[in-house]
Each structure stands twice: as C-alpha cells, then as structure tokens.
Specification:
This protein has 101 residues and is mostly helical. It has one domain. It has seven helices and no strands. It has helices spanning 2-7, 23-32, 42-45, 48-57, 67-70, 73-82, 92-97. α2 (23-32) packs parallel to α4 (48-57) and α4 (48-57) packs parallel to α6. The protein is globular and about 35 Å long. The model is unreliable at 93-97 (pLDDT under 50).
C-alpha cells in the first residue's frame, strides 16, 4: 500500500483508517501531493513536528494543518521559515508577519 500511496497520494482516500494516522504513510503521500493531508488523521494534522515535516516535503501541506496550528504565530513562522512557498497556504494575517512576500 505504501508504494501505491507514494506514487499516487490520492490513494489515501481508499486506505484503512489505521494508515491515516501513520506518519510514514502520510509523508509519502504528501511528497506526491500536499492535498493528501485531507485524509490524514486530526492527530497528525495537529502535531506541530509532523506538520513541519510535511511542509518540508510539500509547502502546500500547510493549508491542511489544524486550525489551532494555523492560528499559532510561532508555528506559522517556523513553517514559512522552512519553505517560503508555504506562505501561499497561510492565513491572511501571517502575510503581515512576513512583509517581504
């Protein structure tokens, strides 16, 4: 299943629930397409360390972080510092924190 997900992140929609909480599986999918996080467990999308790894794999991942993380100024700054393209997926008020973009 991991190889199928690594080739097509959208395959997560057919994955059993236990795989949706597996960081290795989700990161393999995110490397293919950031939107794969739509299927990830809430626990992973709320985990700052996991989400920073996801942003390193694909800047679009930031758009799928939990609302709590997206509202956390420190987390958002760390995510954007890793990949400035993540700013495109950041809430509007984060743009004021990074005016050069």
């Amino acid at each position: 299943m991991l190889s199928a997900i690594a080739e097509n992140g959208g395959a997560l929609r057919y994955a059993p629930e236990c795989l949706l909480a597996d960081p290795e599986v989700i990161l393999a999918a995110v490397a293919q397409t950031g939107g794969s996080l739509l299927y990830a467990s809430e626990g992973l999308r709320s985990d700052a360390d996991f989400m920073l790894a996801a942003v390193r794999a694909n800047a679009q991942a930031l758009g799928y972080a939990s609302p709590a993380l997206r509202g956390d100024k420190r987390f958002m700054l760390r995510a954007v510092a890793q990949d400035e393209h993540a700013l495109r997926c950041a809430p509007g008020r984060c743009h004021a924190l990074c005016p050069r973009f």
